[in-house]
Design a protein that fits this description.
Length: 304
């Protein structure tokens, strides 16, 4: 049986259509269950767009089944994802997760299902990423394993997700300075500040704590060297999306099968290149984080 896809949507009808249209082009779509969590409007301004999204959801075809869960009150992105993933992964044992601004390759579902099968019994692998950094590929093969998770199209198993914990204060109080530095990729200033932001209430996110859970348990994440997804939400329309992301976009992988790493260890080469990527883009990334925080404060309640 194929792994179900969870899709989280809110008030972006155009983006939601692009996400669904690309997913339907996958060969495995008609054999895949699609489960959609639609968050309720936070205010009157969002009501018409949420209704437009929900009306569209009722017209979706091309999947084995479509189940729509309409939230009766506004959960916010973080709470909705944590609750939805927990509910579905506990029922099915595995899950593939998308948000309403993720366009997928026609072989995205093939990649995800294959990787979930391949690493199911390899308990050191906790997470399958659909997106990867635009880094030099030489020496990394088709995919690599490393400590960091990416949440633009991802998948996991129930026996890994059950350890998920959102406890910023606990991390701050229990992690050593070496732990914090390693988590932050040698002090790039990209990841650890997200934990601090959640602790102070400036942020209310989920993905940084899935990464923290994986890191704390010495888990690894699979990353394809060529991305299977693209985030189209960096147009100012989303809660946590900035505008300047040209350095994050690339051609989507079209290969139906790739060579997955069989040796379960972190690629030091990949880590070094990702650190280099972040150091090169420190200022743009920081500006995006500031923009995201501002939108949280004035709009709906990851810096991904």
């Amino acid at each position: 049986m194929l792994v179900p896809v969870i899709l989280f949507v809110y008030n972006r009808p155009w983006h939601t259509r692009q996400t669904i249209d690309s997913l339907k082009k996958n060969e495995l779509a008609d054999s895949t269950e699609l489960i959609i969590f639609s968050d309720a409007p936070k205010n009157e301004k969002a009501e018409s767009q949420v209704k437009e999204v929900r009306d569209y959801l009722k017209t979706i075809e091309g999947f084995k089944s479509v189940k729509i869960i309409e939230r009766e009150h506004n959960w916010g992105l973080a709470a909705s994802i944590i609750d939805g993933v927990t509910e579905v992964v506990n029922e099915y044992g595995r899950v593939i997760v998308l948000e309403d601004d993720i366009v997928t390759s026609p072989v995205f579902l093939q990649y995800m299902n294959t990787a979930l099968d391949f690493y199911a019994d390899k308990k050191d692998v906790w997470h399958i990423s659909g997106w990867s950094y635009p880094i030099e590929s030489e020496g990394l093969g088709d995919a690599f394993l490393w400590r960091g998770m990416n949440c633009w199209g991802w998948a996991t198993w129930s026996d890994r997700w059950k350890h998920f914990k959102k406890d910023p204060e606990g991390l701050i109080n229990s992690w050593s300075s070496d732990d914090k530095k390693a988590f932050d990729l040698g002090g790039t200033g990209v990841f650890w500040p997200q934990v601090l932001g959640n602790a102070t209430g400036k942020l209310n996110t989920w993905a940084i704590f899935w990464y923290a859970t994986i890191f704390q348990n010495k888990g690894l994440c699979l990353n394809p060297i060529v991305s299977y997804v693209d985030n189209i939400g960096h147009d100012g329309s989303g809660v946590h999306c900035g505008n300047d992301t040209s350095h994050l976009s690339a051609e989507l992988c079209q290969k139906e099968s790739i060579n997955l790493p069989t040796d379960i260890f972190e690629s030091k080469l990949a880590v070094s290149r990702i650190i280099k990527f972040y150091r090169k883009n420190t200022i743009p990334l920081y500006k995006r984080a500031v923009n995201k925080i501002s939108r949280i404060l004035i709009g709906r309640n990851l810096v991904q």
